[in-house]
Structures are given as structure tokens and as C-alpha cells.
Design goal:
UDP N-Acetylglucosamine Acyltransferase, domain 1, 11-stranded mixed beta sheet, single chain, 37 strands, Udp-n-acetylmuramoylalanyl-d-glutamate--2,6- Diaminopimelate Ligase, Chain: A, domain 1, alpha/beta, 2 domains
Length: 319
Amino acid sequence: MIALDVLARHIDIAYDAESIPITAINTLNDATASELSFIVDAKHLPDLQQTQAGAVIVTEAFVDKVPRGCKTLVVESNPYLYMAKASRYFTKTPLESSGGVAEIGEGSVIGEHVFLAPGVRIGRECTILSGSYIGADVTIGDHTILHPNVVVYRDCQIGNHCIIHANTTIGCDGFGFAHTASGEHVKIYQNGNVAIEDEVEIGSNCAIDRAVFGSTRIQKGAKLDNLIQVAHNCSIGEYSLLAAQVGLAGSTELGRNVVMGGQSATAGHLKIAPFTTLAARTGVTKTIEESGKTFAGFPFMDHKQWLKLQGKLGRLLKK
């Protein structure tokens, strides 16, 4: 927690109004009266006008749209950059020195050279194999298996009956930076977590990034192959199937039962409708709204059209 006036001074914003305690940064939609938010684009004006945030970072253009009672930190430009500067004051230490001895449920087996940080809670009949690292305040449900050298960063959650294969990392920082006018990259500290629901299986050498705020979420029954990248704030729908080397850019939302073939990928901040199938190496560049369709190619198109196109190209080459 940090006082708003102190935070403003740390990130070089002039502020001389009443101060309030700030406990975190959050989106306009999710922020509470003790949290700071920000707006970078006019398309988010409806969210600004309804926000419950205690304070927001805004430019002069949006000051009169801030709800009554919400404090304003006014900047000339680039509120996103100031949010990035502020994010460092809410990050937690990687390793806690307090928080209580790890709790291990009945029947669970912990292999050699496993590190359990303070506050870890492991359910019943779990197996944590050698070389794994479980960070502070991680919770793991019942009947879950972590194979050798799995790393779970602090505050992440893993459900019941999950299987995480060797060398996968859960909760590493998302790839988030704000940029100055002179081209410097300012780290956005990733202060959310990863939440994995029940019956999820994740292959080896996958990277599941923690959220900026909130959670990166893998929903019940989803199955991920080896060598998959899931960026910050993504949501993978129930019972989705992702083949090897799939890549999801930040804030991608997959509906239920989405199937992604090997090396397919999505751009960020888009949604994929339930029961969509993406053939291998498909590149999704915009939201898919209609359920149950199959796509291929880059830029992506209806699978049948893609097959026809490949046929025509093949015939051209024979001439």
C-alpha cells in the first residue's frame, strides 16, 4: 500500500489534492475504491465514466469524464507509461521470508530437491517430483502431478487432477513494456497470477505468463501440448486443445472447445468463438465471432477457401 500523493511524486506527476491509500493497479472495470486505474483511448470512455477506481491517470482531454469522488492524476500524454512506472510499487518480492510452513495434504509425495516456499498449500494425494520449485502462497489442489523441474511462481493456483509435465514454467512475467519518446522500454510489473482449473494437462517446456493484473486463466479440462506460449491475461476455454508450438499473444480469449493445430497463433486482445478449429500454422489477426468454423492460413481464412487457393496456386506452378 502507498499513499496516492507519494506515488504521484515517485512517478513525476504533480498532485496536491487529498491523498488516499492505494493498494493496487487495476482495469477501469475491475478497480475498487483503493485501486489506481488509467485510460489511454477514447474507446474506453464508457468504462471510465462507470469506474469504481479510487484514482485514475488521465490526460486533460478526459478529466471532465472522471466520476465524482475519483481522484485524478493528470499527465500531458501517455498515461500508459505512467501506469508502467507506478506498477513497480505494487510488485511483491519473489521469495517471502514469512507466511508459515508449507501445508502438505494427506498422501502427497514430495520428491528430492523440491523447494516449497512459505505459504504453499498442497492438497491430498499429490505428487511433486524432483527439482520442482513452488513459490510463495501457491495453492495446488488434490490428485495433481508436477513432473520434474516444474516451476510455479508465487501466488499461482493449480486445481484438482491436473498434470504438469517437466520443465514447464507457470507464472513467469508477461512481456509487457511501455515506451518513452526516446525509445526506452519501461517494464510493466506483472502483479497478477495464473489460475489453472481442474483436470488441465500441460505438456513439457511450456510458458504460462502471469497477468498484469487479475489472472491468466486455463479453464477446466483444457489440454496443452509441449512448447506452448500463453501470454499475460489470456483465457483458455474449457476443454480446448492446443497442439505443439501454439502461441497466444496477450489478452487472447479462447472459447470452449477451441482446437489449435501446431504452430498456429493469435494476435493480442481478440476473442475466438467456442468450437472453432484452427489448422496448423493458422495466424489469427482479428476476433472470430461465429462458433463451429474451421480456418487456415495467414492471414487466416475459411478452411475450404484456403484449400481452393492452394489448389489454384499449385495449378499455376504447373503451367
